[in-house]
C-alpha cells in the first residue's frame, strides 16, 4: 500500500478558534489562507498463484492421490501455507486441507465422474482454483 499526503492552500480567509484554557477566554484568529490536505491510497494487487503440475499419482474406487508443485515463483508473497483440494461430482464434493504438496482424497463413490481441483492459501487469502479441473472417473470394485 502506498500512502501519499499532499498539502494544498486555498486563497480565502479562514477563521480559527483558539481556546485559552488558563484564562477560560476564547480568541478568534484570522489567517490569510487555509490548508487543505488530500490523502491518496493506492493498493497493489497482491495474489497467490494456484498450485501447478497437479497430477493423479494413484487411485482406486474410493480414493485418489494427487501431487502438485507449490506456486512459489521467486516472489516473496508467493509462499503457500496451506492447500485445499476438492473432488466435485454431481453427487457432492469431498474437500481435503493439507500443508503438504500431495493429498489423498477418501470417500469417493465408485463409477462416478469427478472434477479434481486445488488452490493454495497464505496470509493474503486463497488463490484462484485451477483454470480447468482435472477430470477423473473412479473404477468399479
Our estimate of the beta-strand percent is: over 45%
Q: Which term fits the overall shape? A: elongated
Largest sheet: 5 strands, antiparallel
Radius of gyration: 29 Å
Succession of helices and strands: EEEEEEEEEEEE
Structural class: mainly beta
Q: Kindly state the percentage of residues in helix.
A: under 10%
Number of helix segments? Answer: 0
| Poorly predicted residue ranges | 12-21, 23-33
CATH architecture term of the largest domain: Sandwich
Here the CATH topology of the largest domain equals Immunoglobulin-like
Could you give me the name of the CATH homologous superfamily of the largest domain? Answer: Immunoglobulins
Observed structural traits:
2 domains; mainly beta; five-stranded antiparallel β-sheet; 141 residues; Immunoglobulin-like; elongated
Report on the structure:
The chain is mainly β. The chain folds into two domains: 2-42, no CATH class; 52-137, Immunoglobulin-like. It is built from no helices and twelve strands. A hairpin with a 2-residue loop joins strand 7 and strand 8 (92-98).
Amino acid at each position: 500500500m502506498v500512502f501519499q499526503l499532499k498539502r494544498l492552500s486555498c486563497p480565502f480567509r479562514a477563521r480559527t478558534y483558539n481556546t485559552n484554557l488558563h484564562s477560560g477566554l476564547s480568541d478568534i484568529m484570522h489567517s490569510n489562507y487555509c490548508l487543505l490536505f488530500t490523502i491518496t491510497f493506492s493498493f497493489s494487487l497482491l495474489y497467490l498463484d494456484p498450485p501447478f503440475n497437479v497430477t493423479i499419482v494413484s487411485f482406486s474406487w474410493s480414493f485418489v492421490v494427487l501431487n502438485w508443485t507449490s506456486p512459489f515463483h521467486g516472489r516473496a508473497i508467493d509462499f503457500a501455507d496451506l492447500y485445499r483440494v476438492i473432488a466435485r461430482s454431481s453427487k457432492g464434493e469431498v474437500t481435503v486441507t493439507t500443508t503438504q504438496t500431495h493429498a489423498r482424497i477418501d470417500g469417493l463413490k465408485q463409477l462416478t465422474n469427478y472434477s479434481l481441483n486445488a488452490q493454495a492459501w497464505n496470509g493474503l487469502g486463497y488463490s484462484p482454483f485451477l483454470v480447468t479441473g482435472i477430470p477423473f472417473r473412479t473404477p468399479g470394485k
